[in-house]
Write a structure and sequence with these properties.
The chain is of the alpha+beta class. The chain is 20% helix and 38% strand. It has helices at residues 68-77, 93-106; strands spanning 3-5, 8-10, 19-26, 32-38, 40-47, 50-57, 82-90. The strands form 2 sheets. It has a 5-stranded mixed β-sheet. It has a two-stranded antiparallel ribbon with strand order 5-6.
Length: 122
């Protein structure tokens, strides 16, 4: 299952964006998950005794969130039972964090455990 953005399939790595905020929906139960994912991650390697940083593409194309319950449901029901939508493309890591929190608060994800996979640990 590919990502959707503005109703269209989204599969190309966009150079001008750093990451995105997403909504994954379980099409069987209607339960949702709001999260963020970065297009790139930074790696380091030794070059002539110095550490060099470089970026590599993340696993964003195959990503289904970090929530354990969601991951179990994806394994149990199959990827075709879920819809993955990008709700906002972000130009910085900070923008990703901001809009992830904004949408999570807007939808009261932590107060509605029957409607959202999002959880917090005490």
């Amino acid at each position: 299952m590919t990502w959707l953005y503005d109703g269209n399939k989204f599969g190309e790595l966009p150079e001008q964006f750093y990451g995105f905020v997403y909504l994954i929906t379980n099409n069987t139960t209607g339960k949702k998950y709001i999260g963020k994912k970065l297009f790139y991650s930074q790696k380091q390697r030794q070059v002539k005794g110095k550490k060099k940083k470089y970026k590599v593409e993340s696993d964003w194309k195959d990503y289904y969130g970090s929530n354990e319950e969601l991951i179990k449901d994806v394994e149990l029901l199959g990827r075709d039972s879920f819809t993955r939508k990008i709700v906002r493309l972000c130009k910085t890591k900070g923008e990703c964090s901001y809009f992830e929190a904004k949408y999570q608060f807007e939808y009261d994800v932590l107060l509605n455990p029957d409607l959202f996979y999002n959880t917090y640990h005490v």
